Amino acid sequence: MDPQRSAGVSPAVAGVSRPRFGSVTIRDRGRPPHWELDAGLYFVTFRLADSLPRSVLQLFRSERESILATAPQLGREPSADEKQRLAKLFSVRIERYLDSGAGSCVLGGPQVARLVADALLHFDAQRYRLLAWCVMPNHVHVVLRLFPWQELAEVVHSWKSFTAKQINKTLSQSGALWGREYYDHLVRDGDQLSRIVRYVINNPVKAGLKDWEWVRGQDAPTTAAGTPALPH
């Protein structure tokens, strides 16, 4: 899935920070940090490799490192406020560029979008439960609850690995398709979940996409892939 990961090392193992804090595992593989909870509920975003200019990524990484520098110096994990600042940094800076339609936007083609949608749906109700998702032209949003003993890194890896191979084959191209990092947020309560689901299903409208098919969630329409919206 991720062509840039370390050879022979599972993404669920590489860079895992120990010890566990309760049931939460903190992962940081030189990417945005991931706070993973057993059977947790997550909002995940992954993007095409060409969707962000290098200058934007460098600025984001620099600000992220600045926010995260305080916690290790004090011998603790990042605080709730620091995590919130990280989430805002992503939502304000990164999402703005993604929604502007930067890069090749190959996910905008129906055949390619269907490949991604089918990959998300393949293990639904087996490894996780999908609550909402949206395939945008240059990025993907997913809200899911992991089943016990499933790890978010492995799930995202399977999506990216399979779809990268299939999309490159479909488009007769090669090379890294997805950006190395992915962004995730551990959903804490029902109110937060409702806001995130609304954001996901409204993302196409916000980005100016009309009659966008590749979206699921509460109040989202049935799409070409044939899966109905979740019930209220």
How is the topology of this model organized?
Elements: E1 24-27, E2 34-37, E3 41-47, H1 54-68, H2 70-73, H3 80-99, H4 110-122, E4 128-135, E5 139-146, H5 152-170, E6 183-186, H6 190-206, E7 215-216
Antiparallel strand pairs: 1-2, 3-5, 3-6, 4-5, 4-7
Helix pairs in contact: 1-3, 4-5
Explain what the structure shows.
A 5-stranded antiparallel β-sheet has the order 6-3-5-4-7, with helices on both faces. It has a two-stranded antiparallel sheet with strand order 1-2. The longest helix has 20 residues, at 80-99. The chain has helices spanning 54-68, 70-73, 80-99, 110-122, 152-170, 190-206, and strands at 24-27, 34-37, 41-47, 128-135, 139-146, 183-186, 215-216. The radius of gyration is 17 Å and the shape is globular. The two termini are 34 Å apart. With 232 residues, it is α+β, with helices and mostly antiparallel strands. It has one domain: 2-Layer Sandwich (Alpha-Beta Plaits), CATH 3.30.70.
